[in-house]
Design a protein that fits this description.
By secondary structure, the chain is mostly helical. About 65% of the residues lie in helices and about 0% in strands.
Length: about 120
């Protein structure tokens, strides 16, 4: 007899103290609560989303890679170039070239004038 009374007594105490709260739910509301409250379902949903992103990343490895870089350098002072040695060397080269040209011009003029002299005055 105690075996039959004890479960009934436990159920009565549980209902009176509020431990057992039964509610009539429709199937759609029950499934929605199951989906929202289940950590296992949330974990599996997250695994599926992660797999999708990994698949997209793997496809991205086959695409060409384009990088755009831009750098800006700002100097605090002006850049000064000392071109005096180069200028001096250029003047020296120009002077030596002019001297060679004048020497060859003088030789050409002398040979032209010698060719115009009569044969009796030309030195053999």
């Amino acid at each position: 007899m105690i075996g039959r009374i004890l479960p009934k007594l436990a159920c009565t105490i549980a209902v009176m103290t509020g431990f057992v709260h039964a509610e009539i739910l429709s199937l759609s509301v029950g499934l929605e609560r199951l989906e929202n409250g289940s950590n296992v379902l949330k974990a599996q949903t997250q695994k599926v989303a992660t797999a999708k992103y990994l698949h997209q990343a793997a496809l991205g490895n086959f695409l060409p890679l384009i990088r755009l870089d831009a750098d800006v350098k700002r100097l605090d002072r002006e850049i000064d170039f000392d071109l005096d040695p180069i200028r001096a060397a250029m003047i020296q080269l120009q002077t030596s070239n002019q001297m060679q040209m004048s020497k060859s011009d003088i030789q050409a003029a002398m040979s032209q004038q010698l060719s115009q002299l009569p044969a009796s005055q030309q030195v053999a």
